Amino acid sequence: MTAAAPAQRAGKHGRTGERQEALAGYAFIAIPMLLFLVLNIGTTLFAFYISLWDWNYRLGPQELIGLANFEKLLGDRLFHTAIRNTAYYTVIWVPLTMAVGLFLAVIVNQKIRGQTFFRAAFYFPAIASSAAITVLWIFLLQPDGLFNEVRGAIGLNPLYEAMGFGPNHNWFGNSGTAMNSVIILNAWTTSGTFMLFYLASLQSISHEVYEAAAIDGAGPWQAFWKVTFPLLKPGHFFVATVGVIGGLQLFDQALIGGGSNGDPQYALMTVVLYLYNAAFSQFNPGYAASIGVVLFFVILVISLIQRRLFGNTQAA
Amino acid sequence: MRQRLITLGFTAAFVLAACGGGGGSPAPGTGGPGATGPAGTGPAGTTAAFDPSTVTGEVTLGAWESSPAEGTALEAALAAFAEKYPNIDVTQETIPGDYRVQMATNFSSTTAPDVFYVNAEYAPEWIEEQFLEPLDPYIAKQGFDTSTFFPGYADIFKGDDGTTYGLPKDGNTIAMAYNTDLVTTPPTTLDELVTAADALKGQGTLKAPICLSPGLDRALAFIYAQGGSLLTEDGSAAAIDSAESKAAVQWYLDLIKNGQGMTPTQLGDSWCGEALGKGDVAFAFEGGWIKGAMDNDFPDINWDFAEMPAGSAGKATITYTAAYSINPDSENKDAAWVVLQYLTGPEGMQKWTEGGIAIPSRSDVPTPAGFEVVVAGADYAKPGSGFIKSYGGADGVQTVFQNAMVGEIENATFSADPVIAATKAKIDEILGS
User: Fold this and answer.
1) How far apart (Å, rounded) are the C-alpha atoms in residues B433 and B427?
2) B389 to chain A nearest CA, in Å?
3) What is the pLDDT of residues B240-287, one digit of tens each?
């Protein structure tokens, strides 16, 4: 690229070198790529295939039933409940976690003493096991758990009473508050990850634009809303996409919090938890696969819409 | 493209995640009945066409393990088997995590063990899915005595046509566990129970006199006691909408409405055994498994078992059990049968139940100390699950009933009507399909 003089020779040499480099590159990715094709793409395609069959675990395919599994889904009230719950979770959880993540990112992006400590502290819940942290959360939110004790001790009970929650409210055991408890739990655990994404985006914003904004007389508040926030668009897109995909996938916390039935009263029944039920309590892998296929297309469509909304931006 | 790959990867991931298991633990080890009686001998007229001691080979045995004690008990039973049948080599595989999930994947990869546990709750599904080998030919050719199994256990593992797909390895019935410091004479009728509960209100550390599960897992016993039922006698139609059933469900809800009972959720306990152990309640309706929990976790609470209080229809209770079954793909079914007939026979079952965590499912095995009441109930107990397809699970009868009950309790409306309507609709849907 640099020396233009012996163009022919350089070009020839370049082509051979490029080819060798490419071969080496393919050699390096061959094994991971093979695993990816077999374990990810292969299983996905196989799930599509299974969804068209009445499938028996022990005996394999029994009868090709076409789209019958999908037709059954249309009339399956519990599946509709699962979709409602999952949509509710995603619509509340994604913006909430994005807001918290952005807030944390802006804070730890300041040049303050102990910056590294705060970054690690905010990220900490993300590296803890989701199962362990959910169990801990359930424990804290029990009727006689720490949360209820503390709010009583500091005199907040009248406030909760006004919202209709008694002093010993069972947050996970009540159908009205179970999903919201999961939302708050996950907003807390995931905000650290979102903070990292936003932090990367924040640091890619040039100082010059802030200087220009300062010269134009923008205060910190204006600078954030008029400069930082719009310039974070690629970050918003990436975080929102990852968030929506993760939100529609909600499973561990629902299973641990409400068991495989999504207790109480299906409040924690999510699409993936229902898939799990179809597979392992109805023993109907074909039906379970059809739920997976539907979720696949839902996520595909939402991702495409998000892409359209945010424009064709490069992810951070 | 990038998004598409992410999406594809995600889909595969959740398919894999769904296959990965995890989650709820399998049923508690079940234990059973066993009025003691003379050992059964083989039915008359059978010739010794099949001699188990001549069979050789290797057998894998799949089990869940609720506690280390359960593992020890199974080891002891298998050691006794190895002594009696040295030509058969048994390898025990403990299935980790969610047994039902793990076994489903084992069946699909043809790696399921030769002999394995089957919990009552999903026995009808496993029979329908052809996961279980019919046992009648083996029972017949050996002349194996199945007459001493309590029917409340054995019937669960029979198909609609009466074919036997499993033999109960042990069994439990629901009995009344009560705090002996607070209750000197246990109530013998439901009316006495209500009277006793009223007298206990507000005493000591009690949050409520009785711990009541909002599900059929306990309520069904009280429905039977008052002449109600889920299904008609022949199992062909719903009977939950009968006057007796309705009255029983209303009676159950009224206990909670009137402060005589509370659910574990209301009490803040994970189950009624914990509620009894912590002194939150004076009565809990549980099976033999509560004994281990009380002995180990709550040794300071004085308690005892009593038989379920009788209702207008007399004494009634329900069973919890699990069976041994054989894998239809097993390469050595004869050897698998030899293991099964030993472990469910009088000798093997005695070894197994001597471990202290299981209760015999046949009347010719001695009752382990402390479980006399649980075994007494087996004489009149009806199946607590496994009598209708789709009983458990998120879309099952039991879940629909329980969710409707929880709704009535949460909203403080305490009406049986919506519970009956929802349950009947679900039963009709299952029977009609």
Assistant:
1) 10
2) 10
3) 999 999 999 999 999 999 999 999 988 988 899 999 999 999 999 999
Interface check for A40 against chain B (CB to CB < 8 A): the answer is: yes
Please list every residue in chain A whose beta carbon sits closer than 8 Å to the beta carbon of residue B9: 36, 40
Looking at the partner chain, which of B7, B23, B265 has a beta carbon nearest the beta carbon of A173? B265
For B431, residues 6+ apart whose C-beta sits below 8 A from its C-beta are: B236, B237, B238, B388
Return d(Cα A268, Cα A297) in angstroms, integer.
22
* Beta strands at B175-179 and B261-262: parallel, antiparallel or unpaired: unpaired
Q: Does A56 touch chain B (CB under 8 A)?
A: yes
Distance from CA of B166 to the nearest CA of A (A): 18
- The residue of chain B nearest to residue A62, with distances taken between CA atoms, is B129
Residues in A closer than 8 angstroms to B266, CB to CB, are 143, 170
Which residues, other chains included, contact A175 with Cβ-Cβ below 8 Å and sequence gap of 6+?
Answer: A264, A265, A266, A267, B406, B407, B410
Q: Tell me which chain B residue has its CA closest to the CA of residue A249.
A: B14
- Residues in A 164-223 with any Cβ partner in B closer than 8 A: 168, 170, 173-176
Q: Do A175 and B104 touch (CB under 8 A)?
A: no
Instruction: Tell me the C-alpha distance between B377 and B386, whole Å.
Output: 18
Which two three-digit tokens encode residue B307?
A: 């038989």
Contact between residue B392 and residue A277 where contact means Cβ atoms under 8 Å apart? no
pLDDT digit string, tens, across residues A135-167? 999 999 988 889 999 999 999 999 999 988 988
From the list B6, B395, B399, the residue facing A245 with the nearest CB is: B6
Q: What share of chain B is helix, strand, coil (3-state, %, to 5)?
A: 40, 15, 45
Q: Do A259 and B266 touch (CB under 8 A)?
A: no
Window A:247-266, CB contacts with B under 8 Å:
249, 251-252, 255-256, 259-266
The length of chain A, given as a count of residues? 316
Tell me if chain B has a CB within 8 Å of the CB of A44. Answer: yes
**Contact indicator for B431, B237 with CB cutoff of 8 Å:** yes
CATH hierarchy code of domain B175-316+389-432? 3.40.190.10
CATH assignment, B27-37+46-172+320-383: 3.40.190.10
C-beta atoms of A261 and B329 within 8 A: no
Two structure tokens written together for B383: 């199946």
Which of B1, B2, B4, B14 to mutate to probe the A interface, most A CBs <10 Å? B14
| Among the listed residues A288, A273, A264, the one whose alpha carbon sits nearest the alpha carbon of residue B22 | A273
What is the pLDDT, as a whole number, of residue A314?
52
DSSP B19-55: HS--SS--PPPP-------PPP-PPTT------GGG-
Please tell us whether the domain made up of A69-310 is placed in CATH 3.90.180.10: no
The two structure tokens encoding residue B326: 């054989």
Residue type, A136: L
The tens digit of pLDDT for each residue in B186-238 reads 999 999 999 999 999 999 899 999 999 999 999 999 999 999 999 999 889 99
State whether residue A121 sits within 8 Å of chain B by CB.
no
Helix/strand/coil for A60: strand
- Domain boundaries of chain A, sorted by first residue: 7-50, 69-310
Which residues of chain B are in CATH 3.40.190.10 domains?
A: 27-37+46-172+320-383, 175-316+389-432
Query: Which of the four pLDDT bands, split at 50, 70 and 90, describes residue A13?
Result: low
